[in-house]
């Protein structure tokens, strides 16, 4: 019996997904991407879960794509073109699934997150990192510009910062990652679990329907003009206001009592 490549643990409305392939630094192999895609699909319909924490086992959070697996397809008749197209499409669907997931997602990064591993962290709603963590999109160092990781990274940090990381292949420490908006919170290595759980529990304690509506509206409005964004956000506010639990929450606040939410 071998350990599962992706481990899920649920507690207090929080699901923790652990990338469990330390032998290849939790690389996003075909098997890992398939496992993540399947688990995220299950989570999308699980109303008992309010927050999803993503972490890695072993010495790395995630080292990106499995280069050995990718290189093996150069022997294909088309030199791997079809395989690479399918691989990057699958990876993109997993990254987007993290943002379309109804639950809030938090990456818990304990050490290095590089290339598509950095993309994975940037695709989560929030990131908590250990003080010794480094982030990089270093594919350019081996002749492969990190074009797909660029999508998530350039939507999280200023364009000039993203391009510098992409074109130099240099890593940035957790402190710099926090300065530019990639990381939300930093903790000492031995306090990382506690800090991540503190953030996850804070979010999980909120009214889940409000968080679901708000998360969807947050990402939908980013690509809109200001008038379009206000129109979309207004519709989201109306939907939220009409929910009975929101009515209860507002009444409880006005009456100076705790809300009676299920």
CATH superfamily of the largest domain: 2-enoyl-CoA Hydratase, Chain A, domain 1
- What is the 3D form? globular
Secondary-structure element order, N to C: EEHEEHHEEHEEHHEHEHHHH
Fold-level CATH name of the largest domain: 2-enoyl-CoA Hydratase, Chain A, domain 1
Q: Indicate the low-confidence ranges by residue numbers.
A: none
The average pLDDT is 96
Describe this structure in words.
With 262 residues, the protein is an alpha/beta fold. It folds into two domains: 6-204, 2-enoyl-CoA Hydratase, Chain A, domain 1, CATH 3.90.226.10; 208-254, Lyase 2-enoyl-coa Hydratase, Chain  A, domain 2. It is built from eleven helices and ten strands. The protein has helices at residues 30-43, 67-72, 81-100, 116-123, 147-154, 159-168, 174-180, 192-204, 208-221, 226-241, 244-254; strands spanning 6-11, 14-19, 51-56, 60-62, 104-109, 112-114, 126-130, 134-136, 172-173, 185-187. The strands form two sheets. A six-stranded mixed β-sheet has the order 1-2-3-5-7-10, sandwiched between helices. It has a four-stranded mixed β-sheet with strand order 4-6-8-9. The longest helix has 20 residues, at 81-100. The model has no long low-confidence stretch (mean pLDDT 96).
Give the gist of this structure.
By secondary structure, this protein is α/β, with parallel strands linked by helices. Helix content is 48%, strand content 16%.
List the helices and strands and how they pair.
Layout lengths: L5 E6 L2 E6 L10 H14 L7 E6 L3 E3 L4 H6 L8 H20 L3 E6 L2 E3 L1 H8 L2 E5 L3 E3 L10 H8 L4 H10 L3 E2 H7 L4 E3 L4 H13 L3 H14 L4 H16 L2 H11 L8
Helix pairs in contact: 1-3, 4-5, 5-6, 9-10
């Amino acid at each position: 019996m071998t350990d599962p490549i992706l481990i899920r643990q649920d507690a207090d409305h929080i699901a923790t997904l652990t990338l469990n392939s330390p032998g290849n630094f939790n690389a996003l192999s075909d098997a890992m991407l398939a496992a993540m895609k399947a688990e995220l699909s299950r989570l999308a319909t699980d109303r008992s879960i309010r927050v999803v924490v993503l972490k890695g086992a072993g010495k790395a959070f995630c080292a990106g794509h499995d280069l050995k697996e990718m290189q093996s397809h150069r022997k294909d008749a088309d030199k791997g073109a079809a395989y690479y197209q399918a691989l990057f499409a699958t990876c993109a669907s997993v990254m987007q699934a993290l943002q379309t997931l109804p639950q809030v997602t938090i990456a818990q990064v304990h050490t290095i997150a590089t290339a598509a591993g950095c993309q994975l962290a940037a695709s989560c709603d929030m990131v908590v990192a250990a003080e010794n963590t480094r982030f990089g999109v270093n594919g350019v160092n081996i002749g492969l510009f990190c074009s797909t990781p660029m999508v998530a990274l350039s939507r999280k940090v200023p364009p000039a910062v993203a391009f510098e990381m992409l074109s130099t292949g240099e890593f940035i420490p957790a402190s710099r990652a926090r300065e530019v908006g990639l990381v939300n919170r930093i903790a000492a290595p031995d306090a990382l679990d506690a800090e991540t759980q503190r953030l996850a529990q804070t979010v999980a304690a909120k009214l889940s329907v409000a968080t679901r509506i708000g998360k969807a509206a947050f990402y939908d409005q980013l690509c809109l003009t200001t008038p379009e964004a206000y129109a979309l956000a207004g519709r989201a506010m109306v939907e939220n206001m009409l929910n009975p639990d929101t009515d209860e929450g507002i009444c409880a606040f006005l009456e100076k009592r705790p809300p009676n939410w299920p």
